Amino acid sequence: MNCTKLMEEMEVYLKSDRCKDLNEANAQDIHHALSKAIMAQIATPWKESQKLHREARHAYYMSAEFLIGRAIYNNLLCLGIYDEVEKLFNERGLKLSDMEEVEDASLGNGGLGRLAACFLDSAATLDLPLDGYGIRYKYGLFKQYIQDGFQKETADDWTRFGDPWSIRVDSDAVLVRFADQTVRAVPYDLPVIGYGTKHIGNLRLWQAEPLSSFDFNEFNDQHYEASVREKNRAEDISRVLYPNDSTDEGKKLRLKQQYFFCCASLQDMIKNYKLVHGNDFSHFADFNAIQLNDTHPVISIPELIRQLTRYEGVSFDDALNIAKKTFAYTNHTILPEALEKWNKHLLIEVVPDIYEIIEKINNRFIDELYQQKRNPDFIQDVQIIKHDMIHMANLAMYGSSYVNGVAAIHTEILKKSTLHSFYEMWPERFQNKTNGITQRRWLAMNNRELSAMITRLLGSDDWVTDLPQLKKLEKYATDKKVLDEFWDIKHKKKHQLGLFMLKHDGTAPIKDSIYDIQIKRLHEYKRQFLNALSILYIYYGLKDGSIQDFHPTTFIFGAKAAPGYVRAKGIIKLINEIARLVENDGQVRDKLRVIFVQNYNVSYAEKLVAAANVSEQISTAGTEASGTGNMKLMLNGAVTLGTLDGANVEIAQEAGMENEYIFGATVDEIEKEENNNYIPYHIYNNDPKIKRVMEALVNGTLDDGGTGMFKELYDSIIHNVDWGQSHPDKYFLMYDFQSYVDTKLKLNRDYKDKYAFAEKCWRNICNAGKFSSDRTIKDYADNIWHIDPIEFD
Ligand SMILES: *Cc1c(COP(=O)(O)O)cnc(C)c1O
């Protein structure tokens, strides 16, 4: 790409769209104009890629969430023009970094949505014909700020300053019918720019609009009121991302969202198919594969059958077979109670035709089960409709050809328990696809210093598209000069993060302290509470002298709690009160600091992972399906302080146990304890140090502002049994407590030996190759989608 010309184009857009010269433009203006200029440049290869996708066997990634983050820097990197544009900016008195005030597109909650974004990036880079379908939420994940230690939420109006990276395609709008309304689905296309290729994938996000735009000429009060109501009711469907990734809120709207984007996407896919293949649907499954990211898009299965039978003259039997061949389902859940279910009466109310089809599928399935002479318990377990509830995972299992878990241990748990009956029937449908992350964003872009060093040592930047190349760096693991340089870069990233935090959050880490980082959605199972308690333990240990020679440590948290998740919000308040307690204590202030950063999102994550020394991955064994934050931190040279859960297991395998800090109960141990009358009170009551920590929650040491939150947290561990549980402390904090603090303190002692510790960090980088989403996506392409890279002329 000709960058001088790009700069000229940028100035033209500034003039035409913003009426400004370069010297008058602010960061938003520049971002708009530069993005527009790039969009114009990539229009042709983008279109050509789409054509090649259509003609080849291709795949679609359907996801209710795409946590994209900021596009501009990543796109400059993938186009190979980052350095040159930076230089040209500097010559014009501009700074690329000014565009950091441009907001993230946060159209997702966390890991599941970020995974979808990493997958599209990898497919684009590997020239694989994969396109994404999702929802263009007007408001993405809420913005968070902290007031008096409490989480506060505001709306994320992310397109407030425009959205130069999408193109509205009115000509591809379609209608979506519900029992009580019909809306227009209007697509917005985002380019997914492959690294070092002219291939550009497509992410199509649907926006809900009223049928006809409001006609001001026909003005009369009654008509006006009705139109406004109709408009709002239509727009409601894509108005907000539900800030919860496990349970359903605003059930009816959420169901409408799911159906809305599935119905629109399938119309689009069928239109694409007919463009190339005409009306013969017997080859539909030969050219299309559809991956369902969790159960949110599973309503696509009956919807494809509906569209094929209703509009394309395909019989029910044929349509069902086409669906089974076309779809594949990714499970992200371990806990059976977290699997998505819909009340059938809600479906009858909202999408009655779909309910009818699901009923027909269910009857078909039950017939087959009887023919196989399955016993009643088995049938009860696997059937799709039971007790008026529609079990979306069961529908996905019956209506698709493959199911995959997202880490080896997770897939084994699916086979052994969560989906065991299905595994008995169809073992050949089960696959594992351990998650991954794109090294473009999570190393090449966010950590340019470390990237440059790696490229120099390897004598090539091949690792940007071939991450296992990093293994060759292991020969430097004991080379003090290399480790010194790595350490200096880490120090520099820590310094940069500190400056940003100071500006953003009004506080910064202790100088030269260990940066111990836990960043992820706030959930009880992820156990930020355990981390908080361990900090209190260290605090008291430092005060009474039982902990000596402690290397100063800054504990950094970034997390959003779903607004209705009271206990999670209590944990945020607790972390902030511990931060205050420590800060106000002159005796420990220079040894310990706790910072809860506000509004953790993708862009903040990019800075945090580059600066981390310690990656906290401390979920109760058997609860985290995979995790991907753990991979980002590993890749940037942090050691994992974690349990043998999700992908941590494979991280420890790849890097070597001796280079991580693994603690706590295993899945088997937890299972044993579940059946073994676990009594957390005994642990609490028999250990004065643990008791002291827990009592700080209720004896006035920490103040929850009169909310009763801390007493509730205390009770949840010691006394109260949650619904459906047989013991308090559902996530085994007390059980893992001692081994956690012991391991944390060992890590702290180890840190003193700089070269020994830096060697562990380095070995983590060298062995992160497996965790590239390039590897994951290639595995999907080869073993589930059966698609090949496209070839340009
Ligand atoms: C990677 C990422 C996540 C997922 O983190 P986990 O630790 O795997 O839960 C969540 N949110 C953001 C912003 C991310 O970048």
Automatic annotation (TrEMBL):
Its EC number is 2.4.1.1. Keywords: Carbohydrate metabolism, Glycosyltransferase, Pyridoxal phosphate, Transferase. It catalyses: [(1->4)-alpha-D-glucosyl](n) + phosphate = [(1->4)-alpha-D-glucosyl](n-1) + alpha-D-glucose 1-phosphate. Its cofactor is pyridoxal 5'-phosphate. PROSITE patterns: PHOSPHORYLASE (PS00102). Pfam families: Phosphorylase (PF00343). It is an enzyme of class 2 (transferase). Belongs to the glycogen phosphorylase family. Phosphorylase is an important allosteric enzyme in carbohydrate metabolism. Enzymes from different sources differ in their regulatory mechanisms and in their natural substrates. However, all known phosphorylases share catalytic and structural properties. Allosteric enzyme that catalyzes the rate-limiting step in glycogen catabolism, the phosphorolytic cleavage of glycogen to produce glucose-1-phosphate, and plays a central role in maintaining cellular and organismal glucose homeostasis. This is Alpha-1,4 glucan phosphorylase.
